[in-house]
């Protein structure tokens, strides 16, 4: 069973049918009809969110670096709970750009206030914690003081789960959506905005069929009908593990079917290796997902030690299987006995 569905979603082969139907990736440069078709599909995707259009955005660190360089003359509020590749770009450009880090609260697990900046780069859903930020309230508080502030908001996990954005995009809004969260191959992402912000991004080649496929996939997920099992999972694990099990973020802040689980006095890597033999798959956080040995950078930026950050299991699931979660608890107990 997969307990990392948000960070490690399954590929959907049908999403790539039209992308793979062409002989090559490049549109014939003299075929204006194809260019106009893709422009219309991007406009339709933008209009779905109340914006005007957009283009490709790969969600790799290079694209984030380019965006930060274009914003280097502005004061940038950067949430450290953004995508791992955004965080890497932030680290790479700290000496070039004027960043103010924005850190989720330890108690609530969300971003509850914003500093005074010109641009804000925020996730709607915090990485690793899987908590929902009150973007509408945060935006309103800033725009009352600075009506020209720009908001760059990653909506990937929200649209993947069929969650409503909870805020109205405005002229100062740029939305980022990672196609990987929707079952597309890595690198197939987009940005959406209004005409006045297109200059912040380099021009890219259209990918024929991508934009209509992304819109169809977002619309398909727009009415979630899955039951939320997080309370049942929490109650089961609490019964099995007692005070050895805690949370890095309260249930009230978490997305449906997600838990930022804290299993005390172990290294999550050892538990994950043990669960792997049972074909139960989970992650400590984004660093773990990318294959790095270091624990959650989000928790460490929030003030937790490395050892404390290693206690995280960032769980996201679609169903409640008591056997799976009892197995997780049993393997945890075995590791405690072995003092691993």
Beta-strand percent range: 5-15%
The CATH class designation of the largest domain is Alpha Beta
CATH topology of the largest domain: Aspartate Aminotransferase, domain 2
Unreliable segments of 5+ consecutive residues: none
How many helices?
Answer: 12
Instruction: Please give the number of β-strands.
Output: 10
| Lateral arrangement of strands in the main beta sheet | 1-7-6-5-4-2-3
User: Helix- and strand-based class?
Assistant: alpha/beta
CATH architecture of the largest domain: 3-Layer(aba) Sandwich
How does this structure look, described?
By secondary structure, this protein is an alpha/beta fold. It has 2 domains: 13-220, Type I PLP-dependent aspartate aminotransferase-like (Major domain) (Aspartate Aminotransferase, domain 2), CATH 3.40.640.10; 230-338, Aspartate Aminotransferase, domain 1 (Alpha-Beta Complex), CATH 3.90.1150.10. 34% of the residues lie in helices and 14% in strands. It contains 12 helices and 10 strands. It has helices spanning 32-48, 61-70, 84-92, 135-145, 156-160, 210-220, 230-241, 268-276, 286-289, 297-301, 306-309, 322-338, and strands spanning 53-56, 75-79, 98-102, 119-123, 150-154, 173-178, 189-193, 245-247, 258-263, 312-316. Strands 1-7-6-5-4-2-3 form a 7-stranded mixed sheet. The protein has a 3-stranded antiparallel sheet with strand order 8-9-10, covered by helices on one side. Helix 2 packs across helix 3 (84-92), helix 7 (230-241) runs parallel beside helix 12 (322-338) and helix 8 (268-276) crosses helix 12. It is globular and about 65 Å long. The model has no long low-confidence stretch (mean pLDDT 93).
């Amino acid at each position: 069973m997969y307990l990392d569905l948000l960070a490690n979603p399954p590929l959907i082969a049908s999403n790539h049918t039209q992308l793979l139907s062409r002989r090559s990736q490049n549109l014939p440069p003299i075929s204006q009809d194809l260019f106009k078709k893709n422009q219309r599909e991007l406009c339709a995707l933008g209009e779905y969110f109340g914006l005007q259009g957009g283009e490709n955005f790969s969600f790799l660190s290079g694209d984030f670096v380019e965006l930060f360089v274009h914003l280097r003359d502005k004061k940038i509020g950067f949430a450290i709970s953004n995508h791992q590749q955004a965080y890497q770009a932030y680290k790479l450009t700290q000496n070039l750009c004027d960043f103010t880090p924005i850190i989720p609260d330890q108690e609530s697990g969300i971003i509850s206030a914003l500093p005074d900046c010109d641009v804000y780069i925020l996730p709607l859903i915090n990485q690793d914690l899987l908590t929902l930020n009150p973007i509408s309230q945060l935006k309103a508080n800033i725009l009352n003081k600075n009506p020209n502030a720009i908001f760059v908001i990653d909506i990937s996990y929200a649209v993947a789960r069929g969650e409503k954005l909870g805020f109205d995009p405005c002229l100062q809004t740029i939305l980022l959506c990672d196609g990987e969260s929707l079952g597309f191959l890595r690198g197939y992402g987009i940005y959406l905005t209004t005409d006045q912000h297109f200059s912040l991004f380099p021009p890219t080649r259209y990918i024929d069929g991508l934009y209509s496929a992304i819109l169809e996939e977002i619309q398909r997920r727009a009415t979630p009908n899955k039951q939320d099992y997080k309370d049942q999972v929490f109650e089961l694990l609490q019964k099995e593990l007692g005070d050895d099990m805690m949370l890095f973020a309260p249930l009230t802040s978490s997305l449906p079917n997600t838990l930022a689980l804290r299993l005390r006095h172990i290294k999550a890597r050892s538990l994950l290796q043990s669960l792997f033999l049972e074909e139960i798959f989970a992650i400590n956080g984004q660093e773990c997902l990318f294959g790095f040995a270091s624990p959650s950078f989000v928790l460490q930026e929030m003030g937790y030690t490395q050892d404390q950050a290693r206690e995280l299991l960032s769980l996201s699931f679609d169903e409640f299987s008591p056997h799976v979660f009892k197995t997780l608890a049993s393997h945890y107990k075995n590791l405690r006995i072995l003092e691993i």
